[in-house]
Structures are given as structure tokens and as C-alpha cells.
Amino acid sequence: MPTPSLSLDELVVACTQGDRSAQREMYQRLYPYGMSIALHYAGNREEAEEITQDAFVKLFNYLLRNRPKGSVKAYFGRIVINAAIDVLRRRKKNLFTEEVVPSGNCSGYSARNTGLDRLQEEEIYRLLQLLPPAYRIVFNLHVLEGFTHPEIARKLGINEGTSKSNLFKARKRLKLLAANFYQLNLSKPL
Q: Fewer Cβ neighbours under 10 Å: the N or C end of the chain?
């Protein structure tokens, strides 16, 4: 029976043998990490919990057959991202074909990005959750995870141009949302 002093690598070995207490320990250790990633993609906390649960099911099923090469934490992070994409695809069949008309006028703003320095992590999650799902997922994959537009297009089954367009629209929308959130006048330099 594993103890809390086992490393993640030792827990992986125990999980490959179907050890339920090792799975429980790994779940407890990786849950906050998984949720932190899922919150970037989810529309709300419940959806983030669903994504994280799906990711754990996939991780434990995988560990019963294989042993990941490299860090199990990094591998789990990729599973969470893929689980988020799967959940969003199930919920929104036309996720990347919907056109969302922004509220307010976003043109003509010249804002430096220093306002983001003041945002707390929870506020960033809140702003990201206000983005339409198609914008949010492309923004997260590109900005937070470092995927290129060709990689995003392959992963999501969309055109590279759609990826670029959604990123542009997400950034534009985030500027407006942040300005409204902090009641900033973006026509003046910050």
C-alpha cells in the first residue's frame, strides 16, 4: 500500500499494477494541477471538474496498459487539455463555425498590456470564461500552451486561418473585457 512519501514515478508503477490506493494518492496530488489547467478551458467550475474527472479516467486507463515516457505530470497536463477539447466538442457541435458579434466597439483602442500585470489569477480565469468557447480554446492553446496555428488546426479539426482569426478575436475581446472589468479608458495611455 503506497504512502504519501512515494514519488510520482513510484505511484505510476503502482498504478500500472491497478493499485487503487496509488490511484487515490495520485488523484490527490494531481487534482489541483488538473483543475488549474481545466479552468482555463471551462466555462465554469463544474465544467472544469468534469474535464478533470475525464482526464483522470483517461490517465488511469492508460496507466493500466502503459507507462508514460517522461513526467507523468506533464503527460497528465496534455490529457487535461485533450479532455477539455473533447468536452467542448461534445457540447458545441458548431463551436468553430459560430460567429460571435462583440458587444461594444473594440476598434481604435491603443492599450499597453500592463493592465494584465494587475490581474489576479482568479480574475484572469473569470475573463477567459467570458470568451466564447471557440475563442477561449484557441487562445489557451496558443498563448498558454504554446501550440502553433498549424498544430491547433490539426488538434481541433479546423483551418489554420480559423485558428488565427479566433486568436485575433479573442485578444480583441479580452482587451475590451479587461477594460470593462477595470473600468479603464483605453483611449488614453495607461
A: N
